[in-house]
Design goal:
Helix content is 80%, strand content 0%. The chain is mainly alpha-helical. The longest helix is centred in the C-terminal third of the chain and has 36 residues.
């Protein structure tokens, strides 16, 4: 009876749905990786024996390597999204379309270059070019972030312009103003 209560508990079902996706596993592993990083720092600051600090640093590295392994092949998803955005000729806003293409290409390049360094990171096949490739991967990731930030700021500017021209004294204007406010504050709907 107790086992049934545990197995069929809604929390267990939610957890299983969460870790069934690669994104869910990545979030869980990232949380564990960052906790390990924090705890290793905390142990170091409290003069704990170096052996224990090193074990948490190793754990952090292994979680990072596992996350990198889970990302293998994900670059295709970003390249497909870039191509789909680029091919959308009747997009409502051309600038946002190009920002989306730039963001997806940046993330796709990051994941492609990051994938090239996996064997070096895992210690299977060491090569001198891995550090340079990883540096280029970080640059591509940064480009994706820049395009994403520009698109967000541009969208915010457009919403502010749209909000400025609506008449908030009419019923539809009030509703439209509330929609914009909810979107700007993070509700997105």
């Amino acid at each position: 009876m107790t086992a049934d209560a545990l197995i069929y508990h809604p929390t267990v079902s939610h957890y299983l749905r969460f870790v069934a996706t690669t994104v869910g596993r990545d979030k869980l592993l990232r949380t564990l990786q960052y906790f390990s990083r924090f705890y290793a720092w905390y142990l170091f600051r409290t003069n704990t024996p170096q052996r224990l600090v090193e074990s948490f640093n190793t754990l952090k590295s292994q979680f990072g390597l596992t996350r990198k392994c889970l990302r293998l092949g994900k670059n295709i998803e970003h390249f497909k999204a870039a191509a789909t955005s680029y091919d959308q000729k009747n997009a409502p806003d051309e600038f946002l379309r190009y920002c989306t293409v730039g963001r997806q290409l940046g993330y796709g390049m990051y994941l492609s270059l990051d994938m090239m360094t996996y064997l070096d990171s895992a210690g299977v096949w060491k090569w001198e070019g891995a550090k340079r490739i990883q540096r280029e991967a970080y640059r591509a990731w940064f480009c994706g972030l820049v395009f994403s930030t520009i698109a967000g700021l541009y969208s915010l500017m457009r919403l502010r312009q749209r909000e400025a021209v609506i008449d908030k004294k009419e019923g539809e204007g009030v509703v439209e103003g509330k929609k914009i406010e909810r979107y700007v504050l993070g509700g997105r709907g």
